[in-house]
Amino acid sequence: MQTLMSRRALIAAVALPLLVRPGLLRAAEPDLSALSDMTGTAVPIGPEERARRLARAQGLMKANGIGAILIEPGSTMVYFTGVRWGRSERLTAAILPVEGEPCIVTPFFEEPSVRETLAVPAEVRVWQEDQNPLAIVAGYLRDRKLANRPVGIEETARFFAFDGLQKALPGVRLVSANPVVRGCRMVKTPAEIALMQMATDVTMAAYRWLHPRVEPGMTGTEIGALMSAATRKLGGSPEFSMALIGEASAYPHGSKQVHRVADGQVILMDCGCTVQGYQSDVSRSWVHGTATTEQRKVWDTVARGQQVARAAARIGVAAGSIDDAVRRFYTAQGYGPDYRLPGLSHRTGHGIGMDGHEPVNLVRGEATPLAPGMCFSNEPGLYLPGRFGIRIEDCFHMAEAGPVWFSTPPRSIEAPIG
């Protein structure tokens, strides 16, 4: 009898919180029947575009006196070769020569798997477990008569890769591959912009589904789970679904403390997904229930800050000047100055594309001029430590006439999704 009662008590102890917390059940098993895949018409990057990328890269190599560039797995490898691979202590690398086809260097036993995503004509050279993979890279450069020319190293490559190449090819001059990689990736083509637009459309559709389903008592984790579930059903691959509640919203990336939705609390969400390798990034802030005068004032100021940034973004201006314009505006409103709080403690925006954060940033001192096809976030949040924060984030791409939104900013705190 005691065992039976203990079991009943245990069941009650588990069941009672679930009965009290219906939002938890909805977060775990949400009803997504109203949603359907939006991405069926997404057009993946094709062989013609990849060929143009290689031609562009080789032109930039010639212009910068670079004989080849070395790339480790990641978005740049996908960008040029299609190969989707993870980084480990076993080197897989792509080498782009100034002329001719690329080369993939990979462990012997991984070659069949690597070839599954290889999307361009390329030589594949393998290495065995008792061999030095950088010696294979060096051998390729010697065979292509590139050993005496500068080799560009992609900026995210790990130390062992370029250090190993330096040892395997004594006397080689290693330089930054940024003039080539950034020169290609920073300017998006219409095909890339179309995929980013679709990813943003998915994120906005998920926001529209989620917003009326946020209830008192929910945690940020539960709200994020709902957002991720909706994003998957809509055809996107969730990258992040962050929900910050109350005081946590005062810190741009949140707090370890658990906060729950309640009337008068700010809810700040920052969410993004991937469609065919290209990302979205959208933030929305609202108040559950009725906003206070101060919450409304801060929200309205951030919305104006976004428009200040947009007005400052013009072809040919330095990327850092957009950040400067926003900080001047916020200082005039009594925030800051500079990075001081209450105010804007982070950059106004970042580049975006295959990665959620890409070069270059809309940040003080960045001299890179804006050019057609560049894509950025626009997110000049305001944060009041210990109280709340507001961030509204929409991304844009640069056209000759100025910025073009991927998502339309909301107009009021009462209609925060837009």
What are the low-pLDDT stretches, counting only 5+ consecutive residues below 50? 1-20
SSE pattern, N- to C-terminal: HHHEHEEHEHEHEHHHEEEEHHEEEEEEE
Count of alpha and pi helical runs? 12
Percent of residues in beta strands:
15-25%
Q: What is the distance, rounded to the nearest whole angstrom, between the alpha carbons of the first and last residues?
A: 59 Å
Q: Can you list the strand order of the major beta sheet?
A: 4-3-2-1-5-6
Task: Determine Rg (CA atoms, Å).
Answer: 25 Å
**Which structural category fits the helices and strands?**
alpha+beta
> What average pLDDT do the residues reach?
94
User: Any idea what the shape is?
Assistant: globular
Largest sheet: 6 strands, mixed
What proportion of the residues is helical, as a percent range? 25-40%
Number of strands: 17
